[in-house]
Design a protein that fits this description.
The protein is mainly α. The chain has a single domain, classed as EF-hand (Recoverin, domain 1, Orthogonal Bundle). It has a two-stranded antiparallel ribbon. Helix 1 crosses helix 4 and helix 2 packs antiparallel against helix 3. The radius of gyration is 16 Å and the shape is globular. Bound molecules: calcium ion (2 copies). The site of one calcium ion (CA) has 7 residues, from loops.
Length: 183
C-alpha cells in the first residue's frame, strides 16, 4: 500500500513534469513536447548540440520508463503504473533504475544553469516557473530543501531525491525538491 502522502508526491511529478500534454497518462508525445519546451526555455534550436543531447537523454528516459512501468504494454504509463514503479523504488532506494538516475541527473543539470555543480534558489525556481509552478512557492520550497543554505550540491541532491520518492516523513527536506511546499 502506498500512503496518500506518497501518492500526492508522485501525482505532482506525474502531472507537472511528465504528463506534459495533460492527457492523464505519459507517452512518447509528452517527451517530444518536453524537449521543445526545455529547448525554448534555454534558447536551444533544433540542430544545436544541447538540443540533440536533451533529445537523446529524454528519449532514453522515456524508453527506460516505458519498459519498466508500462505493465499492460499499451504505450502509455498510467498513474497506477507510475505509482507501482515508484513503490518498487521506495522498497530499495539504493538500487534505482537506470532511467531514474538519468532523470535525477537531468533535472539537476537543467537547474544548474551556471554549470558550477550546485543549484541556487533562482536557478531552481526559474525552471519550475517554466513548468507552470508558482514562483513564490518554488522559492519557499528551495529554502526548505536547502535548510536555509544558498546552494545545493549534486551529492546533497541525490539524497534529497531518494527522500522525495521514498520518505513518509512530512518534514523531510527531500519533499521539496520539485518546487511544491505542501502535499
Ligand atoms: Ca500525456
Ligand atoms: Ca500502460
Amino acid at each position: 500500500m502506498v500512503s496518500d502522502f506518497r501518492k500526492k508526491k508522485l501525482l505532482h511529478v506525474f502531472t507537472a513534469f511528465f504528463d506534459t500534454n495533460g492527457s492523464g497518462s505519459i507517452d512518447k508525445k509528452d517527451f517530444e513536447l518536453a524537449i521543445e519546451k526545455i529547448s525554448t526555455l534555454r534558447g536551444w534550436k533544433a540542430g544545436d548540440t544541447k538540443y540533440k543531447e536533451t533529445q537523446e537523454t529524454l528519449l532514453k528516459i522515456w524508453d527506460g520508463l516505458q519498459s519498466r512501468a508500462d505493465a499492460d504494454n499499451d504505450g502509455q504509463v498510467s498513474f497506477d503504473e507510475w505509482v507501482t514503479m515508484w513503490d518498487d523504488f521506495a522498497k530499495n532506494p539504493g538500487s534505482p533504475l537506470e532511467w531514474q538516475n538519468l532523470y535525477a541527473k537531468f533535472i539537476f543539470q537543467l537547474e544548474d544553469a551556471s554549470n558550477d555543480g550546485s543549484i541556487d534558489s533562482e536557478e531552481f525556481s526559474s525552471v519550475y516557473v517554466s513548468f507552470g509552478l508558482n514562483k513564490a512557492e518554488s522559492v519557499e520550497a528551495f529554502k526548505k530543501m536547502s535548510k536555509g543554505k544558498s546552494n545545493v550540491s549534486w551529492d546533497e541532491f541525490q539524497g534529497l531525491w531518494k527522500e522525495y520518492f521514498a520518505s513518509e516523513d512530512k518534514n523531510a527536506a527531500g519533499n521539496f525538491i520539485f518546487g511544491k511546499t505542501s502535499f
